[in-house]
TrEMBL record:
Keywords: Methyltransferase, S-adenosyl-L-methionine, Transferase. The keyword Transferase applies. The lineage of its organism: Bacteria, Bacillati, Actinomycetota, Actinomycetes, Kitasatosporales. GO terms for molecular function: O-methyltransferase activity; S-adenosylmethionine-dependent methyltransferase activity. It comes from the Bacteria. It holds the Pfam family Methyltransf_3. GO terms for biological process: methylation. This is Caffeoyl-CoA O-methyltransferase. It comes from Streptomyces radiopugnans. InterPro entries: Cation-dep_OMT, SAM-dependent_MTases_sf, SAM_O-MeTrfase. The keyword Flavoprotein does not apply.
């Protein structure tokens, strides 16, 4: 079944092709699947905030690919991407999840507990910039997932880059911002993403690629 959230996140594909992509990716496990459904049932007006279904397996794949043990997520909502990454961590791995909404993340906490990974997830309810700035300068982060307020993406990037271990990945979501990034007159979040994308491109501390996954995903590797 295709959820409304995933239908919203396929600007480059037909519904048929999108279904085909989902069918040729690892299926979501029952807790992740249930979290998609519950998020739509509990927060129908905000469910579009959830990362697209194919991003769960993609993030899990990246965590396993680089053998990540220390993950930071900026923007957790109801916990879908955090759960997908936490499930891919080794038992002693940790994921710091940054958000400001107790109501939304409460749903995540329930799902993390049901999936048996709650002990790997350290939820920090505070402005994410404060949480990142409080992390030790030599944090040695393996993977960071950026998916919160777009106006702060550059500030998050600047806090994260020095804390990434060499070879560590920053994955940034919504870098196409529903196609609005091509508009030089863009304002608000779209303008912030335009500035972020230029900032990333010019940063010689990182090697970056922009992928047309969902609403656009940049994957950047610390050199
Ligand atoms: C797009 S949603 C994240 C979706 C999530 N990655 C998922 O897969 O379900 C963005 C989240 O960022 C949070 N957020 C917005 N501004 C924030 C801030 N300044 N600090 C921390 N979290 C923030 C919102 O509360 C919201 O839950």
């Amino acid at each position: 079944m295709t959820s409304p959230a995933s239908r919203d996140k396929r600007p480059l594909q037909t519904a048929e092709l999108y279904r085909y992509v989902l069918d040729h990716n690892p299926p979501l496990d029952p807790v992740l699947r249930d979290l998609v459904e519950t998020t739509h049932a509990r927060f129908p007006d905000r469910a579009g905030l959830q990362s697209a279904q194919e991003q769960g397996p993609m993030l899990a794949f990246l965590v396993r690919l680089i053998g990540a043990r220390r993950v930071v997520e900026v923007g957790t909502f109801t916990g879908f991407s955090a759960l997908a990454m936490a499930q891919a961590l080794p038992e002693d791995g940790t994921l710091i999840a940054c958000d400001i909404s107790e109501e939304w993340t409460d749903l995540g906490r329930e799902a993390w507990a049901r999936a048996g990974v709650a002990d790997r997830i350290d939820l920090r309810l505070a402005p994410a910039l404060d949480t990142l700035r409080a992390l030790p300068a030599e944090e040695g982060i393996d993977l960071a997932y950026l998916d919160a307020d777009k106006e702060n993406y550059i500030a998050y990037w600047e806090e994260l880059v020095p804390r990434m271990r060499p070879g560590g990945l920053i994955v940034a979501d919504n870098v196409l911002f529903h196609g609005e990034v091509t508009d030089p007159e863009a304002t608000g979040a779209a303008a912030a993403i335009r500035a972020f994308n230029d900032h990333v491109l010019a940063d010689d501390r990182m090697e970056s690629i922009m992928l047309t996954v969902a609403d656009g995903v940049t994957v950047a590797r610390r050199l």
